[in-house]
Write a structure and sequence with these properties.
two-stranded antiparallel ribbon; single chain
C-alpha cells in the first residue's frame, strides 16, 4: 500500500514533521527492513500486536489493516492532520 516514502505504511496518510521507522518483522525476530509511519500509527501497531504476531504478518501491511482494531483505527485517523497525536490505548 504505502510504497511512497512520503506516505505512512499503515494508514497511507501523508507523513508529517515527525516520522518513525517501523520494522514490519521485529528486529528481535531477524527483521532488518524499515518502513515510515506516523508516531501514532507506530504506537497503535505495537499496542495491538505482539512481536510474534508481527513476525507472522511480515511486510503484509494489508493483513495488519484487516485486523478489526487496526481497521477501526485507520478509519478514525484518516481525516486527521499528518502531525496529529493522541494517547494510544494498550492491548488488554
Amino acid at each position: 500500500m504505502a510504497s511512497d516514502p512520503l506516505q505512512c505504511w499503515l494508514c497511507a496518510r501523508p507523513l508529517g514533521r515527525r516520522v518513525e521507522w517501523h520494522h514490519p518483522v521485529p528486529r528481535s525476530r531477524g527483521g532488518r527492513e524499515t518502513v515510515p509511519v506516523h508516531p501514532i500509527c507506530h504506537r497503535t501497531i505495537h499496542a495491538t500486536f505482539s512481536n510474534a504476531e508481527l513476525a507472522r504478518h511480515g511486510h503484509d501491511g494489508e493483513a495488519l489493516r484487516s485486523s478489526p482494531a487496526i481497521a477501526r483505527f485507520v478509519a478514525w485517523v484518516e481525516r486527521k492532520p499528518p502531525d496529529f497525536h493522541a494517547p494510544t490505548a494498550h492491548k488488554r
